[in-house]
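Aim 2, interim progress. The first record below pairs a target sequence with its structure tokens.
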Amino acid sequence: MVKQKKLSELSESELRHEIQGYKEKMRKAEMNGILNEYDVYQSKVIVAESYLVDRSKIELGKIYKLNDGTDSYFKVERLKGIFAWGFRINSSEPEEGLPVALLKL
């Protein structure tokens, strides 16, 4: 039995290959009308892409536009792994963690 590597253990080229596989599964799920499966693979793409982000370019206290199809902005308070923790601007929601791939750097 081949042990699957964690995303954090993959090289850049392995991550890109994994992302392509997820995108292909997204396409198939969309064609078959299985939206919940599509959403799962979309989330996997975002998490995998977060490992490709240069986290040293993310500044604490800075506000970033989100790459999620909305006009939302997010203020980064801290980083932990591939997640940026902070608050959405003009929202009363509590602190949340977003994969760093959602930040428009």
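The second target in this work package is listed in the same format:
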Amino acid sequence: MYLKTDTSYKENSLKKKLSSRHRPQNLFGQCVFFFLCYLVSFITQASSFQAISDNFKQQFHQQLKESKVPGGAFVIVEGDQILKLSAYGKRYKNSSLNINANTVFRLASVSKTFAATLTSQLVHEHKLDWQQPINRYLPEFSLAKPAQSQKITLGHIIGQSTGLMPNSYDNMIDANVKLDKIVPKFSKLTPICSPGKCYGYQNVAFSFIQPAIEQQTGQSYETLLEQRIFTPLNMHTASVGFDAFHQQKNRAEPHIKTRTGFKQVSVKPNYYQLAPAAGVNASISDMAKWLIANLGNNPSVISPEVLNDITQSGIRTTKELRRREWKHYLDDAHYGKGWRVYDFEGNPLIYHAGWVAGYVAEIAYSPKLKLGMVILLNGESRVISSLGAHFWHSVFEHKAEIISKLSQSKMK
């Protein structure tokens, strides 16, 4: 980070002054010496984004209150440290139970980031291959012309470039139709383009990755996430599935927006059928650990090779450039593998959002600044998009100011 370069200069300068040959021998002098050492440590650790994080907390609480969102939580992480974590509101409307750092939310489509990471791990272990056709693991999947389905690979599935009509058969998931009844319906579909040639966001087809993972490992998807991600990252309240969510006593209940305000609804099992696409549950403290790992601080869990693989720009997603709150800042947008890859005012930003009845979620991080943020809400509200977009604008605007000041100081 740019300010760390500046503080490291200050630190080195002070260290020279505080070297052993300058170290005082009397007791008073030694006390002053150790205090200055502490001061050096504090200066070094101070973040240039602390003020932005503090300001964001105020905005978060104010905007959720104004929008009457029942509750939510956010975390901002820099490197392997939490800059700010805060919770707001209630686990359900008119309740006395406050949301806290360990309150579990549904992540909805942010679950895709976990599926992509797990799949990439297996690819790098040579247990799967991005070029393998999905028919190898799901032979019952077919399109109107069977030869077309044989061209769709695991890479197309995770990269949202299958060529299928966007959100194919999500309507049947909404109607709580079982997945084994939906798969045969694909035989009626004709692709809108060849695989790898156009973007088409999927939930049902994205989850076709599950049988590939399970057949190659001999373990369930849930077990693999637990063993490979949740446990090693100490994500103690993270889980997969409907039953696991209800086993959590400290959980946020869903609320939908109506004309008269937010209304609490029941959690439905329908999208939990699509575990890779929408099946993960987690608290904001869990998501802080997930962010830290994706910022490269847990290479034994998520290797640099996997991180590079899943965040490589894939198919272009021009529709994203028209997002209400984000369109002012996005210069380009692609889908990687389970992650969106944005060009945000000239800066790479890795991103994904999620929505499922009664919950919204958003995760994003800057690989260059080693800064990330997650927001989780238990009410459907567009305020999450506004908060996220304006936060990242503030971050990159601040970065530009630092560069400008450093350039001016060098010219002097």
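Residues 1-24, 28-45 have pLDDT under 50 and may be disordered. This observation will shape the mutagenesis plan for the next reporting period.
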